[in-house]
Amino acid sequence: MTELSGSIGAVGRQLPVIDLVRCARCGLPETYETIEFDPAGVCNICRQKEFRDDQIDWEARGSQFAALVEEYRGKYEYDCIIPFSGGKDSTYTLYHMVKRFGIKPLVVQFNHGFMRPTLLKNNERTFRQLGVEVLTFTPNWKVVKRLMLEALIRKGDFCWHCHTGIYSYPMHVALKYNTPLIVWGEPSSEYTAYYDYRDDAIEEVDETRFNRFINLGITAEDMAGMISSDFDFDPRDLAPFTYPPVRDLRRLKYRSVCLGSFIPWDTRNQAQTIESELGWEGDEVENMPPGLYRYEKIECYVQGVRDYIKFLKRGYHRVTQMTALDLRNGRIEKADADRLVREFENRRPPSLDIFLEYLGISEEEFNSIVLKTVVPPHQPDFDAITAGDKTWDFDLWYRER
Ligand SMILES: [Zn+2]
User: Fold this and answer.
1) How far apart are CA 320 and CA 342, in angstroms?
2) What percent of the chain has pLDDT over 90?
3) pTM, entire model
């Protein structure tokens, strides 16, 4: 298949000549994590979705969840902890738990350092409308910047502090507040095959999952060793990124689950619900088709860099992922999906300038770091990259100088 070859419309340049094998249905390429294709050329993520829609007894799962909530209600400092970024998934989860179950949660926010103005407004509105208590934690910025650089060099993914902090910090809070039930939003099975819906397995958001794909194979202890030769830090600076000792969690009798394991997850409909019920607002994101996916990944002002790295590394970015979801849900035509991919994926995000400023590296250094993490058979073609547009809030983002 040749989705990525050929002309790219108005710009008229050629995209990379190496064609990636792609799912006949959703278009995800062979460089996608955990992907496999069956004899019909359809990927395992598409098959997982079929199984989810046809084979799971969602009513039984719903009752299972209701029983779980009752087991913990009223017995601890809070009924549950809800880790919260303010994006559509965590906002819907909080909304659902408060409105449907009338529980008293402790909302825990790990501030990764890049929250955008619209998101901050959404958060305030959501907390006030739902009447919830909130704990926000912000890690040391200097440490965050050094961790980002190390993760970029090691893995071509600078979000280590964010992945780990978001999943580890709320577990420390669960211990501190003696609150064993932790409710996350979307299960990973919607996007990858690290977990699937078969055998009626319920994905536990635990240390196994944390080590399987959240922390990129780098523990906080590893990280401390990696940066210690050139960076002065207090060992306690890395504590928020460690997973709490499993014996402490067991003693708490914790349960850490995704709401999406118990109700069929539908991001687009859920985004509409929080828009109409809470006044939640979407936003534009760098290099995404304007107006189409305003509910996705509005949390972070270096999201565009993250997507760009994925494109350089693996030959696709989030347009492909979003159209793949829409194709699986029958919400877009394949030809339209292909057109969006060709038009938007090969753009350089303006936030790259800010990102390079934070990390203190040049674009040449950035490119050579990313080149070392490319996933074959993809090969990036820097000549085919064009300049992307700034979002409305670009000039409001924190600058280092
Ligand atoms: Zn597929």
Assistant:
1) 9
2) 81
3) 0.90
